[in-house]
Amino acid sequence: MSTLVITDLHVAIDGKEILKGVNLTINTNEIHAIMGPNGTGKSTLASAIMGHPKYEVTSGSIELDGEDVLEMEVDERAKAGLFLAMQYPSEIAGVTNADFLRSAINARREEGDEISLMKFIRELDKTMAFLEMDEDMAQRYLNEGFSGGEKKRNEILQLMMIKPTFAILDEIDSGLDIDALKVVSKGINEMRGEGFGCLMITHYQRLLNYITPDHVHVMMQGKVVKSGGAELAQRLETDGYEWIKEELGIEDEVEQEA
């Protein structure tokens, strides 16, 4: 079992504190969902875990199996088994999906143990068929000209091919129609198991209708203020966030980060 431990994490953007002491422990074989109003720091948390330079960790720690993640460069975090599916995936002209995926897979393997071309093609074809993706997407430039749904499906293709230890999925359901949502959810559910843990950031219960989380956390004002099981997300869908604010005595504040 692997464990990702976030302890008293404080993160600032341009000198303004966004995360104000986040504590979270994620094990493999677990799917965690983070929900919360806009401006609570959910996407900041995802970016801080992966080491985006815009986000300054002012105190606290992130450890992966006891190793200090904050001391790692971004590529080292990816090689260590962390993966981020971004809310708005970047377009990269001149690099095909297939070339990107093979390079990413080999970057996590020892020199001399690179995946063979034939094995890679077999796995790629199988995974694209599972995700109901057109074969020609393998030779298209990474996300260039892709629709929103194609980009999100492509993120799940990367997830299933690279096979990280922990995935952070930042609003992977954003902008998806119901058919695309079902396919994306199918891919994430396929990854569930002893060697995989996941942190999903979402605004909506509808994603959790297809991916049942083991743990649900609510973020407000830069902290995790409440945790529970899947039933917590269901109540949020019905009653919103006001009952949590009343229960914990949380006052509204100006939104800081979407």
Describe the protein's architecture and organization:
The chain has a domain at about 5-90 and about 165-250: P-loop containing nucleotide triphosphate hydrolases (Rossmann fold), CATH 3.40.50. It has helices at about 40-50, 75-80, 95-105, 115-130, 150-160, 180-190, 205-210, 230-240, 240-250, and strands at about 5-15, 15-25, 30-35, 55-65, 65-70, 80-85, 90-95, 140, 165-170, 195-200, 215-220, 225-230. With about 260 residues, it is α/β, with parallel strands linked by helices. About 35% of the residues lie in helices and about 30% in strands. Strand 1 (about 5-15) and strand 2 (about 15-25) form a beta hairpin. The chain starts with a strand and ends in a 10-residue tail after the last helix. It has a six-stranded mixed beta sheet with strand order 6-9-10-3-11-12, with helices on both faces. The protein contains nine helices and twelve strands. Keywords: ATP-binding, Nucleotide-binding.
Instruction: Supply the number of helical segments.
Output: 9
The total strand number stands at 12
How helical, in percent, are the residues?
25-40%
Tell me, briefly, the overall form: globular
- Strand residue percentage: 25-35%
Task: List low-confidence stretches.
Answer: 254-258
How are strands sequenced across the largest beta sheet? Answer: 6-9-10-3-11-12
> Rounded to an integer, what's the Rg over CA atoms?
18 Å
Tell me the structural class.
alpha/beta
- Output the helix-strand order: EEEHEEHEEHHEHEHEHEEHH
| CATH architectural arrangement of the domain at 3-90 and 164-248 | 3-Layer(aba) Sandwich
Oligomeric state of shown chains: single chain
What is the level 1 CATH name of the domain at 3-90 and 164-248?
Alpha Beta
Characterize the main sheet: 6 strands, mixed
Distance between the termini: 33 Å
At the third CATH level, what is the topology name of the domain at 3-90 and 164-248? Rossmann fold
Query: Mean of the pLDDT scores?
Result: 91
Relevant CATH superfamily of the domain at 3-90 and 164-248? P-loop containing nucleotide triphosphate hydrolases
Keywords: ATP-binding, Nucleotide-binding
Organism: Lysinibacillus alkalisoli
Family: Belongs to the ABC transporter superfamily. Ycf16 family.
Domain ABC transporter: 4-246
